[in-house]
Amino acid sequence: MTDLSAFPIATRWPAKHPDRLQLYSFPTPNGVKVSIMLEETGLPYEAHAVNIGKDESWTSEFLSLNPNGKIPAILDPNGPGGRPLALFESGAILVYLAEKTGKFLPADAAGRYETLQWVTWQMAGLGPMFGQLGFFHKFAGAAYEDKRPRERYAKESARLIRVLETRLEGRDWIMGDDYTIADIASLGWVRNLIGFYGAGELVAYDELKNVPAWLARGLDRPAVQRGLEIPPRS
């Protein structure tokens, strides 16, 4: 049996199946990227809920795996060379899982780099801007009298979602006919923007046609539906 005792995180979140990939996450837009990917690939894994509402990602056990204190993170007992691999940052994990399974990342160099540019675009722009808009529209920032921060992030979020709208013109998926990690990276964030954040009106979401159709196609995938609920919040 695989021994994970060298990893402190396994003391707080013990593995029932230590031979499987271990996911430490919470069903946020960043967290569900990895659970969706795992569901899509069919890799055996075990999910552990790291409750960010209770600051569990700042415990010493979690920080031993991800010193940045953010979900998601994984521990793959069957990493490169047969050695365990601990990995954090959702974009890096998506690339790793795509390469490990040979799925959802084009094999040809041009397609691979084009896909990675859209994953990077999500990581650097779409996610951070949508997250800030959520803070200033739904969470504590909504109480600020100065509405300029919300307006700034609403404007940038509206611009970014129109970049995606343009990209999807004539395409089912970001890379065309093929569903890839570029789609997996962005689906949860767009869903959150118009759902949980309730910011659709701020970015004039109803004016779009390609993004809503793309989101509907993504949410219709059984693996996406499962991944959005993993790990359960309870």
UniProtKB/TrEMBL annotation:
Domain GST C-terminal: start-end pairs: 108-234
Family recorded in the similarity comment: Belongs to the GST superfamily.
Source species, domain of life: Bacteria
Xref: PROSITE patterns: GST_CTER (PS50405), GST_NTER (PS50404)
Protein name as catalogued: Glutathione S-transferase N-terminal domain-containing protein
InterPro entries: Glutathione-S-Trfase_C-like, Glutathione-S-Trfase_C_sf, Glutathione_S-Trfase, Glutathione_S-Trfase_N, GST_C, Thioredoxin-like_sf
Phylogenetic classification of the source organism: Bacteria, Pseudomonadati, Pseudomonadota, Alphaproteobacteria, Hyphomicrobiales
Residue ranges of every copy of the GST N-terminal domain listed in the record: 18-105
